[in-house]
Design a protein that fits this description.
Number of domains: 2
Strand order of the largest sheet: 1-8-5-4-2-3
Distance between the termini: 41 Å
CATH architecture of the largest domain: Up-down Bundle
Order of helices and strands: EHEHHEHEHHEEEEHHHHHHHHH
Helix content: 40-55%
Shape: globular
Number of strands: 8
Strand content: 5-15%
């Protein structure tokens, strides 16, 4: 019998089916929050929805961090932490995609630890890896996060946040049980301002979350159930959104699929090589994680098939395919008009040896169903994607 521990995280509520402004009012009233700092990207901060949120918050809005960049560079976190510290909030509202939500986590970690410059932040990153116990939340920070996602990356469902050191092109994660957002507000209206290509690619990222957990060699009924439902929702709803950008029901189905794609982590289900490669490619080249999933997931499924073909058959069926999981993933990605090759997302072939060496030591590579013998084997896999 394989031992499992099902963990409950410090996430108290997930709200959907209610307009986001009303949901935020309810959430703040329930928690008694009166001092809010809003975290977003410059693009998101300029949307009409962000303006409506500022208006609804009124005097409760005591600060704003509106310059979060993709992949969360260290400098932006240091600046954001200074703003948050001076504002003395009791809540951070993260409005945006995965980078914004990860940034809010890193900013909160800095405020809690008294970190106020980049060297101190790098030291904090070295001390707080993903290896924390996310269910050990008897004591939580006074400041919590409310996540209002606008993409499908599902960063709102984790207790860790990725940041990038532009000088080295590497990514690291800050993690703590209290970085898990206290609540999530899903409203499909907020996804309409996201460029269609970005929205669809982050949906493939959510498929990546669910597919790699379903492909894991350690069988877990809870993770299998939620991952299968996530794949079914996403593979049905993403093409509907592409066909009709105004289909809010399809957009909400996508959001529900993204949420469920991460639920298996509660049962200890692990991701694998597609995530590892996405981490190093994104950090080194700036490619968006949605794009790396579009490129990496299908070849990784084919690479793993020799050791988990039985697990992969369920993935193919959930995606509406009749062949291999790799073929089903690639068919869907092509149908969505998204990239399938590394060269299509700006990765130069000369980078492959360095990317392979980094990926060999990335944590999800150690939990991939097929363990690579060396960096050369990973380089060959990357070459098949180029």
């Amino acid at each position: 019998m394989t031992p499992f521990v099902h963990r409950q995280f410090a996430q108290q509520r997930v709200r959907y089916g209610t307009p986001f402004l009303d949901a935020i009012d309810d959430e703040l009233a329930l928690a008694g929050d009166t001092r809010i700092v809003l975290v977003s990207s410059s693009r998101q901060a300029a949307t009409p929805e962000a303006a409506l949120l500022r208006e609804r918050l009124g005097g409760r809005l005591v600060g704003e961090i509106a310059d979060i960049a993709p992949h969360v560079p260290l400098a932006g976190i240091s600046r954001g932490a200074a703003i948050a510290r001076n504002a003395r909030p009791d809540c951070l509202i993260a409005l945006g995609g995965g980078s914004v939500i990860d940034a809010a986590k890193a900013i909160l970690a800095c405020v809690e630890a008294g970190v106020d410059d980049e060297p101190a932040l790098q030291d904090l990153l070295a001390r707080t890896r993903r290896g924390v116990e996310p269910s050990a939340w008897d004591t939580l920070p006074a400041i919590r996060i409310i996540a209002i996602p606008t993409t499908l990356s599902a960063a709102e469902c984790s207790w860790f946040g990725g940041v990038t050191n532009p000088a080295t092109g590497t990514k690291a994660a800050v993690s703590a049980a209290g970085l898990m957002p206290r609540s999530i507000v899903y409203d499909p209206v907020l996804t309409r301002d996201v460029p269609m290509r970005v929205f669809l690619a982050t949906g493939v990222k959510a498929i990546d979350h669910a597919a790699e957990r379903l492909a894991a060699l350690t069988v877990c009924p809870y993770s299998d159930a939620v991952s299968l439902k996530a794949l079914a929702l996403l593979s049905s709803a993403l093409p509907r959104v592409r066909a009709d950008s105004g289909d809010l029901d399809a957009r909400l189905d996508c959001q529900m699929g993204a949420w469920l794609s991460m639920a298996g982590v509660q049962a200890g289900a692990q991701v694998g090589a597609s995530h590892a490669l996405g981490h190093v490619i994104g950090g080194a080249t700036g490619a968006l994680h949605g794009d790396t999933s579009c490129v990496c997931l299908a070849p990784v499924m084919r690479w793993n098939e020799a050791v988990n073909a039985d697990r992969q058959s369920a993935i193919s069926q959930a995606l509406g395919g009749s062949g291999s999981a790799g073929d089903a993933v690639e068919t869907l990605v092509r149908a969505l008009g998204l990239p399938t090759r590394l060269r299509d997302i700006g990765v130069e072939r000369s980078l492959l040896p360095n990317l392979a060496a980094r990926a060999l030591h990335d944590p999800p590579m150690r939990t991939n169903p097929r363990r690579p013998r060396d960096a050369g084997e990973i380089e060959a896999l990357l070459a098949s994607m180029w």
